[in-house]
Design a protein that fits this description.
alpha/beta; 13% strand; binds adenosine-5'-diphosphate
Amino acid sequence: MARPSNITSRAHSIKRSDRESRNGHKGAVLWLTGLSGAGKSTLAFAMEERLFALGCQVYTLDGDNLRWGLNQDLGFSHGDRTENIRRAGEVAALLARAGLIAIAAFISPYQTDRQNARRAAGGCFHEIYVRASLDVCESRDPKGLYKKARQGQISDFTGISSPYEPPESPELVVDTANSNVAACIASIEAYASEQLIFPKSG
Ligand code: ADP
């Protein structure tokens, strides 16, 4: 998309490092990608609770939730999915610049779209692959969507009639087929503690 002309961006006088030292952690994007039913929303909201309890400023952007508002004009064609992720990536990057840990839970099936979201976040993007095979996700089918997709009632459904490109080098992989929710949360929490949360002084 072309950059607008006659627009000059203005710098904030409050530095990002000031916001981060007040919060006690870095501003960051934890980007969860994976098939429908892999466990993105479950882990994102559990992680939000956990980080909040630890005193972090944290907010979850969930794919389904954003489609109720900001992205309600978008469907599931390749172009609409790209725009969905572009907007989500920009919002997540804004939250991170404001000093929050933004947890983003989006199927985000295309590598290029995730790379663009990474670029928007400018160095504070952490890709977490929420991995479970199509068979596992389909057997869970928490929203009954796979059944509908198999019956032809939903088109462009990821894994059935639309592709999913797995991450090539994610910062973290959680294997939800072989680890329970608590173990996956512990793994993400360990990563966040090491990468994002400042050690308490004194
Ligand atoms: P997504 O957001 O990826 O579409 P959901 O979080 O809505 O997936 O659904 C995932 C389903 O898988 C839930 O019913 C959840 O209880 C179940 N599940 C089983 N094991 C795990 C795990 N280790 N992590 C996350 N979810 C799991």
